[in-house]
Structure formats: structure tokens, C-alpha cells
């Protein structure tokens, strides 16, 4: 019986969505847990009946059970809404004769006076189910925990959409509740519907994301890695040194990158582009020379050789896909491809050319990684990201006497970052 009533209580809970206020002033509110916790049908009713953009307050509400000994535990409500500092305690309740009903549940509300929002009280409403499936509402109108001194409970009439009730408490004054009757929604008690209800958040998000959307994405990231350039030079006829090669190395201690971009979304897939400016701190720039002399291997190591580029502008295209983890978190694998220009205008070698863009050619990078996104509001998500970037350029034309095909470079960096994603509009 408990299982049956709990399966219909989401609809009863939606039916309890209300207007709250004092005197003649009313303000529409919605319940933070929402109908979409249970099924797509309930979510549709919830979304059509109430528009969050017009709401001016929240009423913390939670569905719970009546414990043995006729006590109601407020701890789950307090834990679900910590910012309200709701007291955790066992509320004793005096119950009427419930022998005519097949099951009962309790609805906990935390009611506040809009003029004194820092003061609130917990109120208990009880919903009982009749054998024919009808729902009966017991309202503790004087908030004393006794359901036997509040008059008769009520049922919504078939054509009744709303009913106003009042709760009086010295701490918050008189609170008017306009209960909405959404209970006529058909209830299908099947195993399949129960399975769907546990995953309704993902189904609903898919429905929301069916339209195309345009998103602004801004981010800040930082990474580090090691860089090397290797090439061989041609043997000189008048020298006894053979098979000479040069290896330049450096450490990119920290690269700070700021990026702005736009993305087009369909369902959970995002394809977009971004531009970014990157500034790097480069150190430990060394040169290792290897060669053979008189048939014997030799090596020379020099510090502070080579001046690696440290500023660049990136143009990137990317794709990512949101995988919902729960109602507020998503994981998004991401891949990207970047073309970049070097802004550093000083010679890599002391007597080399300064405009590296003219000699460091075929500049590109690709990256792979992922984001964890937090849904801060209906259109805004905050994210953290981690990705690996592989950089490439061809500097073979910069170095004289190079053996064709011998140039090789390597620069891989690991980045972490934070950012914001805002849906600008749908179409």
C-alpha cells in the first residue's frame, strides 16, 4: 500500500502547488523539488502550471512518512534545504481515525512570512488515499500538530481547480495557501512507469534540448609541459665532425589562456568555435649537440640556448557532448583542433630571423579531454575542465644546412580550467 500511495504522491504533491502571501498580497511560488523527479507527465503539468520566471519566493517542501509513534521527522527537509536553517526535530502529530484509508503520507512545508523571511515554521499536511484511489487532504490550519481540531478534511471536486486554505501561527502570522488541483492526471501503476520515473530527469532534459541553441562560452585555463626540437645538419667536407644533430629543449612552466567562443547545440551535442590569447612562462632553454668525431661519439651541452615563443593567438573549432550525471551535473567529453599565430617577435637563435611566423610553419594543435558542468540556472552552466594539448609546427626552414626530413618537434601540455556557458537563444 505504501508503494501505491508513494507512486501517486508526486501528483498529489503537484496538486499542492500554491500561492502564498499575507493579507491581500499573493506571490506565486514553485517547489524546488519539482514534478520532474517523478515522471515526464508530471513535469509537463508542473511546467505548464507554473512559470519560474514569475515566481518571487520558494517554499521548501518534501514528501515523507509518518513514523511510528505518530511523529514526523523534519531532518530530511532540513538536509534538503540547508540554506533555510530548518530545525531538525521529531514533530509529534495527533492523527484522526484513518481506518477508512488504505495509506497515508505527510507533506512538510517550511512557511515564512514574506515580510520577515528569516523566520519560518514547519507545517505538516497529511494526504490519505481512499480505496477508490481518491485523495483526502488533512490541513493543520492552526499548526499545533493536531489534525482533529481543524475541521473536516477535504477532497477536490471533479470540476474544482483550486481551493484556498489558511494556516495561522503566531511566529509568521496568517498564511494563505491556494492549493492547485492537478490530481486528475491519469496514474498508470506499472513497473515500466516506475522505471521511467527514476530517470525522468534525463528524459526531460532531452526534451528541453531538442531545439537548436546558441551558447556563449568563456573560459580561463592554465597548463604546462615540455618542448623539444630536433634536427640534423649536413656534413661539411672540411670538418671531421659527422652526423651532427641539435636538440633544443625547454620547459613551459605555466601557460595562461583566456578564451571566448560560440557554440551551436542540438540536444546534447555542441559544435563551436573560439578565439583565445595565450601567455606562457618558459624556462630551462638548453641546447644539446651530438656528433661523431674520428669515429667516436661526442656531446656538448649549453644552457640558455634558444628563445622559445611565449605568446600566441589561437583559433579553435571544437565538439563536445553532454552526458547527464544527475539533475544538475553533466560530463562532457571534448575534442578540438586549433590553428595559431605566434606573437613573439624575437629571434629563436641569436642571429636568426625575428618574425617566427614566417619560418615556424604549419602551426596547429589538437586536444582531447572533458568538462564537468554544473547547471547554475535554466540557461547558465559553470564548468571545470581538464584536457591534453598536442602542439605542432615545422621550423625546418629556419635552420641552415638541415637534412631534409630530419626535423622533429614535440610540445605536449596538460591544462586545467574553469568557465561559464550561457544559452543566448533557441531557434
Give me some keywords for this one.
427 residues, Porin, eight-stranded antiparallel beta barrel
Radius of gyration: 33 Å
Helical amount: 10-25%
Structural class: mainly beta
CATH C-level class of the largest domain is Mainly Beta
The CATH topology of the largest domain is given as Porin
CATH architecture of the largest domain: Beta Barrel
Q: Which of globular, elongated, flat, extended, rod-shaped describes the shape?
A: rod-shaped
Strand order of the largest sheet: 12-13-14-16-18-19-20-21
Biggest beta sheet attributes: 8 strands, antiparallel, barrel
Q: How many separate structural domains?
A: 2
Beta-strand content bin? over 45%
| Distance between the first and last residues' Cα | 46 Å
DSSP strand tally: 21
Number of helices: 5
Average of the residue pLDDT scores: 80
The ordered H/E elements are: HEEHEEEHEEEEEEHHEEEEEEEEEE
Low-confidence stretches: 10-57, 184-209
Summarize the structure.
By secondary structure, the protein is mostly beta strands. It is 11% helix and 52% strand.
Question: What would your notes on this structure say?
Answer:
It is a single chain. The strands form four sheets. The chain has an eight-stranded antiparallel beta barrel. It has a five-stranded mixed sheet with strand order 3-2-1-11-10, with no helix packed on it. It is rod-shaped. The protein has 427 residues and is mostly beta strands. It folds into two domains: 2-204, no CATH class; 209-426, Porin, CATH 2.40.160.20. The chain has helices spanning 2-15, 40-49, 75-80, 191-198, 200-208; strands at residues 19-22, 25-30, 57-58, 61-64, 71-73, 90-92, 103-113, 116-129, 135-139, 162-169, 173-180, 212-232, 241-266, 269-293, 296-303, 311-321, 323-324, 329-342, 361-375, 380-394, 408-426.
